[in-house]
Amino acid sequence: MNKVYAMIAILTFGAPLAAAEPAAPQLPFIDAAMVRSLMPEKVAINISAAFPKAQRASMETEKIVPLVSKDSGLTQRASAPDTAAAREIAAIAKSPDSPFGAIDSGNLGLSAYRLTPEAANMTVRLVRKAFPGISLGNRPYAAAGPQLILVVTSEDEASVYMYEQGSSNGRLSRLADFNTADAVDAFYSDPQLAAFASGYDRYDWPGVLQGLAGKGRGIALPLGAGSARPYWWNN
What we know:
Layout: H1 3-13, H2 32-38, H3 47-50, H4 53-64, H5 80-94, E1 111-115, H6 117-130, E2 147-152, E3 159-165, E4 172-179, H7 184-188, H8 191-194, H9 205-213, E5 218-220
Antiparallel strand pairs: 1-2, 1-5, 2-3, 3-4
C-alpha cells in the first residue's frame, strides 16, 4: 500500500488502538434492606466463654469497688472487703438502735479502721488487760482469716466498737466496745503498747487511738459524707 492509500485508510477508518483496555469488573447488586435485616440490633458478649472463671471473678470485683469518696479524706481505692465493711457499718449507723450513733454523730462523725494483724492482736491484748470480763476468744489474727475492724466515735472521750469481719462472707460480728479513757491506765502501763503511741508523750486517750489504729496500723474505711476525717485525733 502506498502512502496515498494509507492516508486515505486512516482518514476513513481511524488509527488502530495500541492495546485493548481491560473491561471494568461488574459488582453484584446490593440490596440495602436485605443488609439491614441481617445486622443484629444488639450484640451479646458471652463473658463465660471469653474468660476463665478466676479472671471473671477479678473483673467483677474491680467493677463493684468504687473510688473512695473525697468526703472520707482518702485517696486510695478501697478493697472489696473494706467497701463491704464500710457499707455494713453505714447500715448499722442508720438503724434506730445503732450502738455508736449515726455516721455524722459526735463532734466530727464516725470513722472506722481495718487493723493490721499486729495491731489487731495488740488491741485484743489491751482489752483483755483493761477489761478482764470481756471474752474475745483465743485465736490470734493473721493476714489470712477474719479481720478486726474498729469503729471509733469522735466524742470528747472517744469510744471504740470492735467488729470481726468474716473471711468467707465478709459480714461483721460485734465483739465488744470500750471507752478509750477507761483504757488509758492499761495501755500506758504496758511498754509494748505504749511504744505505739507515737507522737503522744502525754498520758491521754488520743495516744490509745494512735497506738491501736494510727497510720500504718489501721486502714481507714470509706464511710462517706458526714463521717470523721481518718485519724482525726492527729488533726
